[in-house]
Amino acid sequence: MTRAFICGCAGTSLSAEEKAFLREARPFGAILFRRNVASREQLRALTGEIRAQLGADAPILVDQEGGRVQRLAPPHWRAYPAAAAFARLGRDGAATARLIRLSARLIAHDLREVGVDVDCLPVLDTPCDGAHDVIGDRAYGRDPAEIARLGRAAAEGLLAGGVLPVIKHIPGHGRARADSHLELPAVDAARAELEGQDFLPFRADADLPLAMTAHVVYTAIDPERPGTLSPTVIGEIIRGWIGFDGLLMTDDLSMKALSGGFRDRAEGAIRAGCDIVLHCNGALDEARAVAEGAGELAGRALARAQAALARRGAPEDFDPVDGARELDAALAATA
Predict the structure, then answer these.
(1) Are strands 64-66 and 69-70 parallel, antiparallel or unpaired?
(2) Is 5:59 a contact under the CB 8 Å cutoff?
(3) I want to staple 304 with a disulfide (CB 3.0 to 4.6 A). Which of 57, 247, 288, 294 is the partner?
(4) CB neighbours (10 Å) of residue 40?
């Protein structure tokens, strides 16, 4: 039995206790952070250890956006630009999209080389004046149509490299005035305003295979519960108005935007309509409670998971040296 959760691990290799937990709890996959990364050789060994417990097809995720959100970092990996940096290159729309796709294709090459096959990118949030900068330069701009177009270019670059993209943070974190890592944001905009801006990039890119929820309360839709825990937000907005029918995972359940026990958080998210819950910090006592609350991956959620993994193809032909040279030349010209 596979359970409907993804978990983290504590260090650069698995402990005996972590190996036993993975074998017994059977999470759908695992997610890696900077604490898990030391070198190419080490990371390749760690992803191999994880799959030795979960099976060869188990997805392994990372947040590798570029800019300030980059888990695989120098000196072992190149530093990639933040999403907003591409607009500052002064290229036309097609050239900008090409460079974003190229950057994502290079990221995919880096990830596949060490056994990672899911990247939590692109960010489709639309920032606005007065919002917290937790999104900030992680967004592709402020125009929803442009965000959708450039976000799709990033997703296409990842898919061409055999890495699955995860759109985030559905249905939109850009307007939030607080960082959901630290507290629960509430957005008071009217539903019509949200549909006319914040939700649009997700609707345009709703055919992509995976999405991550926002721990944000949208008071015009559900004043009591954040999107991750709201059947109304998930049913009416994410599955309904946006039309996303891919695999829906939560943002990290250990973020301070959420309250209550970890089993309750997991149960609440699954009950609200999430397919998979995400627990990132590697604390095994919390992960055990999440596993119990998540339950079996079955039914429609299992079908969505299988459909998402089916889009994880072999990388297309690509010369990473030529690709890096083109990207560096574009960045150098602007500098």
Answers:
(1) antiparallel
(2) no
(3) 247
(4) 14
Dihedral in degrees, nearest 10, Cα atoms 62, 70, 280, 283: 120
276: helix, strand or coil: strand
Question: Count of alpha carbons within 13 Å of 240, Cβ hemisphere only?
Answer: 10
Amino acid at 219: T
pTM of the model: 0.97
Largest Cα span, the chain: 53
Is 11:36 a contact under the CB 8 Å cutoff? yes
What is the number of other CB atoms lying within 10 angstroms of the CB of residue 182? 12
Secondary structure element (H or E) that encloses residue 231, with its range: helix 231-232
pLDDT in tens, the chain (335 residues): 999 999 999 999 999 999 999 999 999 999 999 999 999 999 999 999 999 999 999 999 999 999 999 999 999 999 999 999 998 887 788 999 999 999 999 999 999 999 999 999 999 999 998 889 999 999 999 999 999 999 999 999 999 999 999 999 999 999 998 889 999 999 999 999 999 999 999 999 999 999 999 999 999 999 999 999 999 999 999 999 999 999 999 999 999 999 999 999 999 999 999 999 999 999 999 999 999 999 999 999 999 999 999 999 999 999 999 999 999 999 888 75
Name which of 116, 6, 26 is nearest 62 in CA terms.
Answer: 116
Domains of the chain by residue range: 3-334
Q: Per-residue DSSP letters for 287-300?
A: HHHHHHHH-B--HH
- Listed residue (70, 74, 56, 109) closest to 318, CA to CA: 109
Q: Which CATH number fits domain 3-334: 3.20.20.300, 3.40.228.10, 3.20.20.70, 3.40.50.360?
A: 3.20.20.300
CA–CA separation, 147 vs 139, rounded Å? 7
| DSSP conformation class of 229 | G
